[in-house]
Amino acid sequence: MLSASTGEQSPSFAVSVPGPHGMALDEANGRLFAACDASELAVLDPGSGGEISNIPIPGPPDVLWLNPRCGLLYFAFDEPGVIDVINTKQLSKVEQAKTSPVHTLSQLM
User: Fold this and answer.
1) How many whole angstroms from its chain centre is CA 92?
2) Which of these, 20, 11, 10, lies nearest to 54 by C-alpha position?
3) Neighbouring residues of 77: CB distance < 8 A, sequence distance ≥ 6
4) pLDDT in tens, 73-107
5) Where are the extended beta strands (E) located within 1-109?
6) Which residue, 89, 93, 108, 109, has fewest beta-carbon neighbours within 10 Å?
């Protein structure tokens, strides 16, 4: 991972869930979210790298987007064709919207 402000490499962390690839940093709440192909969201402390929680998700994620102002994290899944919404403070799913199975969010627009 690279620092957005300096471009320098940040420390790397081990994630217990296989296949982490989509990431979002919630600086306000001190959480790093790693969406994993093993159908889980790993929630990490960006300072120590320790895992705070793992949240089940419905499949390998296609894309994720963090809205820090609302405290929500959105995931799109090609299969099963849904978008999940996670509350980043409570670390719980607040909504799931069904969509047509697509490979990227750009195909929804």
Assistant:
1) 12
2) 20
3) 57, 58, 59, 60, 61, 62, 83, 84
4) 998 888 888 899 999 999 999 999 888 765 555 55
5) 20-26, 31-36, 40-44, 51-56, 63-67, 72-77, 82-87, 92-98
6) 109
The whole-angstrom separation of Cα 26 and Cα 73 is 10
At 53, which amino acid appears?
S
Domains of the chain listed by start with CATH number: 28-108 (2.40.10.480)
Phi then psi dihedrals of residue 78, to 5 deg: -60, -50
Pairwise CA distance, residues 35 & 87, whole Å: 15
Q: How many CB atoms lie within 10 A of CB 13?
A: 17
Q: Which residue has the tokens 């959105």?
A: 74
Q: Which two tokens stand for residue 99?
A: 């969509």
